[in-house]
Amino acid sequence: MVDPDTTARDSVRVMVVEDEPKLAEIVARALAGQGYDVDVVNRGDDALRRLMAPQAPWAIVILDRMLPGIDGLEVCRLLRAAGNSTPVLMLTALGSVDDRIDGLDGGANDYLPKPFALKELYARIRVLLRAEAITANAAVEAGAMLNVGDLSLDVERLAAFRGDERIELRPKEAAILACLMERADRVVPRWVIHEAAWGDVDAPSANDLDVHIGRIRNKVDKPFDRVSIETIRGAGYRIRSETP
Ligand code: CA
To answer: Are 139 and 178 in contact (CB under 8 A)?
Structure first.
């Protein structure tokens, strides 16, 4: 049985929210050249609506501060107020310390004043994506108890619970499940899971992750008639807090 997903290219989707068409095009082309899948949005309200959608696939948002509709700062504040933790790199022409603080207070993860060198943009994006992956590892190491719907996970004891039923897990299975559960209802890029479970953005082999996901499904979903772990073709996996 071959999962069709294994043939799809691993890609990280980036949303670029920028109303200046030339700059949007330069950034989009540059990031595409770095291997990212890029979507350009030119209004703040449009960006917010898409990011809040239940299947929002973006691993990071490059968000201009000044935008039509809703400005970038407000987009960021509203996202965070709704519990959305997608990393935000805010771009601005305003380089003062106060503006920088406003952006970070508003929930932006980092701040890049215009004009910027593309190399610096690439570096900032890598740092933010890596920080996301490391956050997952930190929770695993802290032995946090994770809950998604009626599924809970005790990472330290390598045990999951579906309701009261105890499920034994192998260490990799627990690490992968923790990575997904920490980002419930969000698409988790394959490489983020690789980093959380293997400590490297590249898994040992192309379908290793899929094999592990299959085993996890056989333990936490199938015996309980659930389909909580979804394959998102070309992107990664997502665990749903509400399952049919
Ligand atoms: Ca602008």
So the answer is: yes
Beta-strand ranges (E) seen in 114-190 are: 145-148, 151-154, 159-162, 165-168, 188-189
Q: How far apart are CA 106 and CA 127, in angstroms?
A: 19
Distance from the alpha carbon of residue 18 to the mean position of ligand 1, in angstroms:
6
pTM: 0.58
- The dihedral through the CA atoms of 97, 135, 41, 81 has a sign that is negative
Report CA(67)–ligand 1 centroid distance (Å). Answer: 5
Mean pLDDT by 10 residues, the chain (244 residues): 38 91 94 91 96 85 94 93 89 71 80 88 88 62 76 87 90 91 87 81 76 96 94 89 75
Q: Quick one: pLDDT at residue 12?
A: 82
Structural domains of the chain, ranges and CATH numbers in brackets: 13-132 (3.40.50.2300), 143-239 (1.10.10.10)
Spatial contact of 58 and 39, defined as CB atoms under 8 Å apart: yes
Model pLDDT, residue 206 = 67
Tell me the CA–centroid distance for residue 81 and ligand 1, in Å: 23
Q: Which are the contacts of 67, defined by CB distance < 8 A and separation ≥ 6?
A: 17, 18, 19, 42, 43, 44, 47, 75
